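Is this the right way to post structure tokens for a design question? Let me know if I should format differently. Anyway, here goes:
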């Protein structure tokens, strides 16, 4: 309840962190445990989900604290700032070229450092951010698919449907 809310509040202020490669399996394992509990729905499964979620949140907080003491390189800082900008402005016209221009670097360099820092390319990150917002709108409003696509930064509802289907396997 309140314990998780305080963790989420802290994490909301610092959404990005890097999981060390030697620890990624621990994170994946906890997520798989939560998914298994949700799928099996055995006795007290909600308590088990909360337990695993608590472990996950504490680990994330620990990595965030460690990262805050480390000075990020210029390229990592640029990529982090760009990701924050995308998350706040996904509904606007964003291109690789416009982002590179915003950060006063060439597009190839921006693309390279963004992918290195985030693990995904600019277009994939942008589409994932837009799709996440679109999913939320589709689940909580009665706005048409075309309007959702436009409000989430997709200029073409057909492209939105194509991207949605590619990621989710359904329309």
């Amino acid at each position: 309840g309140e314990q998780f809310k305080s963790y989420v509040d802290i994490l909301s202020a610092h959404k990005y962190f890097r999981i060390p490669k030697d620890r990624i399996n621990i994170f994946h394992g906890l997520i798989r445990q939560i998914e298994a509990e949700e799928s099996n729905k055995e006795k007290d499964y909600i308590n088990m989900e909360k337990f695993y979620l608590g472990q996950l949140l504490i680990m994330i907080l620990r990595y965030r604290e460690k990262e805050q003491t480390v000075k990020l390189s210029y390229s990592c800082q640029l990529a982090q700032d760009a990701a924050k900008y995308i998350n706040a402005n996904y509904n606007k016209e964003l291109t690789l070229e416009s982002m590179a221009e915003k950060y006063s670097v060439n597009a190839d360099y921006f693309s390279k450092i963004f992918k290195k820092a985030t693990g995904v390319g600019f277009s994939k990150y942008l589409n994932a951010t837009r799709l996440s917002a679109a999913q939320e709108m589709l689940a909580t409003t009665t706005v048409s698919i075309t309007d959702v696509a436009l409000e989430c930064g997709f200029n073409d509802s057909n492209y939105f449907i194509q991207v949605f289907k590619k990621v989710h396997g359904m329309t």
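Format looks fine. Someone answered above. Worth noting: The chain has a mean pLDDT of 83. The CA atoms of residues 35 and 41 lie 10 Å apart.
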